[in-house]
Amino acid sequence: MSAATAPPVRRPAGARVSARALGEGGIGRFLLRRLGLAVPTLLGVTAVVYATVALVPGDPVSVFLGPGAPAEARAALAERLGLDEPLPVRYLTWLGHAATGDLGVSVAGQRPVTELLAPALGQTLLLTGAAFVLVLVAGVLLGAAGATRPESPLGRLCGALSTLSISAPQYSVALLLIAVFAVKLRWFPAGGTHSAFGAGGPGDLLSHLVLPAVAAALVPLGLTARVFRAALASVLAGELADALRARGLGRLAVWRHCAHNASPALLTIAGLQLAYLLEGVVFVETLFAWPGLGRLLYDALAARDLPLVQGGVLVVAVAFVGINILVDTAHAWIDPRVRG
Amino acid sequence: MAVPVLDPPLDRPVPAVTPRRRPVRWPGAALAVPAALAVLLLVVATAAPLLAPHGAADGSLTGRLLGPGAPGHPLGTDGQGRDLLSRLLLGARPSLVGGLLPVLAATVLGTALGIAAGLGGRATEQALLRSLDVLYAFPGILLAIAVATVLTPGLTATVLSLSVVLTPAVTRVAHTEVRRIRAAEYLEAARVSGAGRGAVAVRQVLPVVAPVVLAYASSLVGLAVVYAAGLSFLGLGVAPPAPEWGAMLDELRPALLTRPELAVLPALAILAVSVVFNALGEALRRRVGVREELR
């Protein structure tokens, strides 16, 4: 059925449903539409980020000149800083600069914000990448073990483990890991990316990566396990599994087919967890002295370095929106029902 | 997104009439145990000034960083010689308030917004949902950080910023529930018999939406406690010297390498509260029959 001959159907509101309204659209159209929907969201995001800084109490002119400065000097500085313009105009100016990669100058570091953000982003991606591998592997194992025999002691244990994992705040886990594995047992270093002395190299980096990756991974891991377990259990209890068993397939073969059918749910939840990892790094990086975005943000907050806070929040929010689009697109690619 | 959104299963039947009270079912252990522990936590937080052996600010220069089991200090002392057991007990109140109040505010506001979006016509619905999408574009703690930066550090900053983070999630849950029932015949019947919009919203829609929203909101408390302590840890929430678990976490950090058993105490307190409230939320959600959605 082509889109032209399709009868007009009134769709309920909601982006997920309206994606179905595409009819037999290709994956490219789906992606384009999703990108189109992201534009107003991103504009809103920049407005919120800008407003948070514009609303911070305190007047920059008084900070620079002191409270007793003559009115002419105040007016001149306000004009030079662009503060005499109305707020919407200032926002548009800032937006124009941000769009060309100019996020202002860090107050504390006296360097362009983008120069500080770029290397930090790389370190954060390394940490979140390592944590994501853990989320996938352990989440799938825990979820699969829980779904295969939900009422057995093992199944219950897996359920309890994922609940515990979901409830474990990153900073608590990070502190406990440092206390046990770095201070008491001395198996892993307590922080940083490389040892000050010693061979260095990938092995050194890896040993520095273990504890922060575990601390960052626990909550997303638990959520992934829980969702995959629920999806797999419902497929295993459904007609598909009955039909496969009726055809004489072995347990393992039935399980394999069912796991395949539960994989879109796994993909969606795991993708969302990739975005969630970006949130946990604020605490994990701070506690493990990992020189990434989260640590940068923590230092910027402590120093009240607002342009840097603004830039960091903006970068993470844009990455967050981007990951969500990628996840939705991948979902539509695997499961054509989502796109129509 | 850290705040999970729950959608009711679509195959749940639309009630044909306003639901009547169901007979009371006794809760199983999965609900009773976390509920009892949560009540115990609230009692301890309320009675903390009576239970704490020392004052929150009673320091001593000679008794700094004493290990657990030191005479008079069962859990030891912090870097300023203040009794840790007392500070943990006294810190329970701001820590729990920082988690509970935002959930309460978000529940009330989110339910109102969700019902308004569901019943208010297409333009209102779209305007509300699209504005919420913007807030959804931030990872939860980052939005809280962005809002809290604007405010003076303190419990008020925590409550306000977390309310902003949690309200969109509650609104979505309430809205989904309203959308499910808004074409039901009993709403039409109420309108035909002359009930105004407000009366339909409060007397017909709210009783259906409330259990689902409350079950969902209860599952947010653990998360909110974790976020609240996190904000204090970052110096945006309750500030030292007030006893609060997140702030204590930051204060004890320098002792992590020398006295790890002291530094992990506030971390363990937050973890315990988070587990209790998450288990409670999960049990309540199962009982009301709300399944967890992906987002």
TrEMBL record, chain A:
Location of the protein in the cell: Cell membrane
Q: Does the keyword Cell membrane apply?
A: yes
Domain ABC transmembrane type-1 residue range list: 121-327
- One family from Pfam that matches here is BPD_transp_1_N
Q: Which InterPro entries match?
A: BPD_transp_1_N, MetI-like, MetI-like_sf
Residues annotated as signal peptide: none
Which residues are listed as membrane-spanning? 35-56, 125-145, 157-185, 205-223, 265-288, 308-327
How does the UniProt record describe the way this protein sits in the membrane?
Multi-pass membrane protein
Check the record and name the SUPFAM superfamilies matching this protein. MetI-like (SSF161098)
The entry's keywords: Cell membrane, Membrane, Transmembrane, Transmembrane helix, Transport
What the record says about family reads: Belongs to the binding-protein-dependent transport system permease family.
List the protein's name: ABC transporter permease
UniProtKB/TrEMBL annotation, chain B:
Q: Does the keyword Membrane apply?
A: yes
Q: Which domain of life is it from?
A: Bacteria
Q: Where in the cell is it found?
A: Cell membrane
| Every ABC transmembrane type-1 domain range | 92-281
For the region Disordered, what residue ranges are annotated?
1-20
Q: Secretion signal: which residues?
A: none
Report the membrane topology from the UniProt record: Multi-pass membrane protein
Do you know which PROSITE patterns this protein is assigned to? ABC_TM1
Q: Does the keyword Transmembrane apply?
A: yes
Quote the Pfam families the UniProt record gives: BPD_transp_1
Q: Where exactly are the transmembrane stretches of this chain? A: 29-52, 96-120, 132-151, 157-174, 213-242, 262-281
Q: Mind listing the UniProt keywords for this protein, alphabetically?
A: Cell membrane, Membrane, Transmembrane, Transmembrane helix, Transport
Question: Which InterPro entries did the record assign?
Answer: BP-dependent_transpt_permease (IPR050366), MetI-like (IPR000515), MetI-like_sf (IPR035906)
- Entry similarity comment: Belongs to the binding-protein-dependent transport system permease family.
What is the name of this protein?
ABC transporter permease
Which lineage do the record's taxonomy fields give for this organism? Bacteria, Bacillati, Actinomycetota, Actinomycetes, Kitasatosporales
